[in-house]
């Protein structure tokens, strides 16, 4: 793996990309005043005990109040269960299956644009636009507004570094400028759906009813926001990372070319080795023992999914890219009550895009003269550009 990831960039804290182990399974960082959780079993304990490890991180980290309302990612207990049940009614794995032909069509159209060239940037031409168009079409907002979304979401993630709650160093989740724009934009569409319903997710969210209850406008808007936040850049990164893995391990690329039923396992193993979200934050609600350490109440805990995915107690040869590993119980989509609602969609996009890339380009390979660099963000693993050669080798 080091052959893939150690080459360029990557945030210094991402030791797993250098093939290194964490000093401890659970450790307190006195500089940031944040606990780091690096072991697989310890991470599971955190994610599976939401009553002790709360997702309401706004208790400790300043977050714009506008994005607190009905933000599934930052809710606990009954309010989270209620909202998740309501949105799950309309955002179902079955609805994703219905999207697959359209995902294939879009992928084909995007790849048509690069045919005849010797080289193209996978991120620019496919990995960025595909998930964004899919989410836009799903929500029912014009995909022509894609440049706006891209700009806002980029604004949200820019400079977003490792969380710190040390005095004078609070990271107020620097997503506010972009967030305000996204919320206003989706809000306008939600208001319109109340007047003129359509065949789209926003309308279904507006109309959904569970036990006689409807979602409020703020809940619908914020769910749309969470879909964009959690589902767009992550899927972009998944596509880039999976292609990087296939390039770095040509024997697996050859196997996957010959047997496309392997693609889902290739995607899971890419997710394990290079998880788009490398870390999740929680706040303790009471004193707790974790990995032999005593963590007091009201402390911020970062669960380093990427490190847990390389814990040799859970994965044999964790630094070997092995799509055949079974089980592959990586934590890249989280665990427990917050398990990623978009996992079926991300997996489908990954499978369809990789399949078409392999179909179209028998000589797909990275350009040794133009090697990509990783985004310098501690909590994400992904690349901004991935130049690929597609001419005869
Ligand atoms: C939650 C990762 C794609 C929607 C999560 C969580 C992770 C994650 C780790 C758990 C957060 C936590 O526990 O605090 C990913 C990755 C993706 C991806 C790696 C792509 C490879 C998507 C897509 C969508 C989506 C495509 C929808 C369009 C959501 C939602 C939640 C979530 C709504 C919140 C669930 C809850 O809090 O109950 N995702 N995600 N994700 N994801 Fe994804």
UniProtKB/TrEMBL annotation:
InterPro entries for this protein: Cyt_P450, Cyt_P450_B, Cyt_P450_CS, Cyt_P450_sf
Cross-referenced Gene3D superfamilies: Cytochrome P450 (1.10.630.10)
UniProt keyword annotations, A-Z: Heme, Iron, Metal-binding, Monooxygenase, Oxidoreductase
CDD domains: P450_EryK-like
Organism whose genome encodes this protein: Amycolatopsis ultiminotia
Protein family according to the UniProt entry: Belongs to the cytochrome P450 family.
Pfam families, alphabetized: p450 (PF00067)
Domain of life: Bacteria
Protein name: Cytochrome P450
